[in-house]
Amino acid sequence: MTPTPRNRAVSTRPDPEPCREQDLGLFEVKKRDGAARIGRLHTRHGSFTTPMLLPVVNPNLRTIEPRDMWERYGVEALITNSYVIWKHENLREKSLADGVHALLDFPGAVVTDSGTFQSYVYGDVEVGPEEIVAFQRDIGVDIGTMLDVFGRPDMSREQLEHSVEQTAVRAAPSLAEAGGGMLLNGPVQGGLHHDLRAQAGGLMGGVEGEHRGFCVHPIGGIVPLMEQQRYRELFAILLAARSALPPDRPVHLFGCGHPLLFPMATALGADLFDSAAYALFARDDRLLTPNGTVKLAGLEEWPFTSNALFGITPEQVRSMDDDERSEILAHHNLEVTQAELARCREAIRSGTIWQLAEQRSHSSPQLREAFVWLQDQMDDPDDGPVGESALRLIASCDPLRDGGEPLGDDIEFRPHILHMQALLATRWRPPGSWWDSTSEPPARIVLIEGAAPPWRNSALHAVVQHLVEEPRSIALVSTPIGPIPFTLEDVSPWCHLTGPDDMWLGIYDDDEISESLRDLGLGDLPVTRVMPDPPPPDPPDQAGTVREWLDRCSIVDKLALLCAVHPLEACKITEGMSARRSRTDRMVNVHAEAAHILSPRLTDGGISLALEGARRLNQAHRSPPPEFGMEGPDEVFVGIPRVSLIDDAIPFVGKGRNVIHGYVSGADPHLIPGQPCLVVDSHGGLVAHGTPLATPFEMAFLRKGIAVKVRDGAMRDAE
Ligand code: GUN
Fold first, then answer.
1. pTM of the entire predicted model
2. Ligand 1 centroid vs 158 CA: distance in angstroms?
């Protein structure tokens, strides 16, 4: 017997647990990579993980049974159209009597649209804004949609202003009609106008209902753009809308369901997708793949397979009758769609979502054009909402990550690399004093070239030799993405670059070198270019002293670069420093004045504070503890970023429990997710230290999940 999607064994999956009453409608961010995030949205029919696709189910024509989606594919939520249900008497009666979950035979979360798209296609709908929300509520929908006013990309500015305004006018009455039980989508219109998209985001995001505001913000009016493959405009709209939307709500791309678009959309912060593409393309004998669409006609083998197609040939599928063929192709399409979203989620977990978007950008010229435009925005952001979002995206990226960093033409535009380069350009300073205890200005630069990482093995001896020769030398290492101080030799991404061996042999011309030295503020110094020879059998007498000085410079530089600690302050904190070394001769525990202050991280070159280090860094702080809404001082070295806690949480966090969203009263604007921070009380007293998982902007909004993963509570000893 030919195995078909229908006759394969399926396990029975239990029905979902309703969320806790207090969590209804809350969005929790579990993991992030720049703007991309893995979230959980909590509903009465279970919580679902984002980024995810809501498969569109036509209640009159179910190509794949919703129950099958739940059991076989683990689909946690789907979307159907409440206007279609409302218009068909049999569906209306049944859903009003038994509820929409029974109508569809689906136990997970049911999202409904409102008829706006029908008004775009047919010109009008026969239902009013409040009536359709009340209907969605009455049939037991989990997340309904208000009747927004569709703004087509080709409309005049006046028409689009009207669509934004009219949608906003309907927002509060729609929320009132939804009541306390049903969550509501608040769509963002505005056509191609970035300012209108931002205005709509602000308006819709700011509406407060008696029970809650909107819980999801779909970006509307984009279907025509996707049909015409106008991806650059699509992503610009997403960035513009996100600049003004509250960050504690998922963003949904209405009608977007081609897997080709998922990596890039996800990298820019889209959380939800919906589409009937899996069924529509199947009916048209087309197969979805992560790189585009393939026609069944003429295929001898599957260019991209799936569980649904495994074991059957294209010829066998072509010979099936229409229903059977479109069913099997729909299963394939849904599987591919789900698999690509799983790939995106994994890429977020491993910090590689931008690289996945970069790879996929080569799948179509239109997508590549959009990606190149995005790179330009990252490198040189526009004034306005798009640029604002691009800057926010870069600042929200953890600049460090373990694992390889593959070299490629686009490498310098990856947001975490741009972030790291910006930190290097603004926060790195030449040493203030030298290993021989002199403190005159630097005399020269020693640029190590032609050496591969780890540079502590390939170049340390050359650095030491040149420092012995001239103590006032600044040692830099040349890398394919620009020179870096030797003191940061074990920091990712530089030390993790992967590519052909000869990438380390790249010798740059004098002009290129001068330009990158200018970026580091070192434009005027003479440069000695060095290709390291093999290490000499006997190191110079001063090697030990030079090495200790380099070790201390490395800690000072990392505290400055990653934590915004003033280099002079970092010097004070590391006075009398000593370090325990690993078997591979790397610093593992750093002590100063007999206390363990921090540990360098071997995986990515970052630092993990110890409690005593956190105490000393907190004592060095001059500015008051942060409060939301307050601007930080306009200086480069404002001290290690802090998160302030409301009093209720202090006993828990002080003993080492994580900081939970909702208990935060402020966060320094320069806080970087993934890099060390302090947790303080309202007087600035140290409560704990740890790693922030959200940006300061997000901390002001999020109400569920972990804000700071605490390493150590400052009140543990008091137990
Ligand atoms: N489906 C596709 N686009 C839209 C839109 O702009 N609004 C609504 N409500 N549904 C959509």
1. 0.95
2. 20
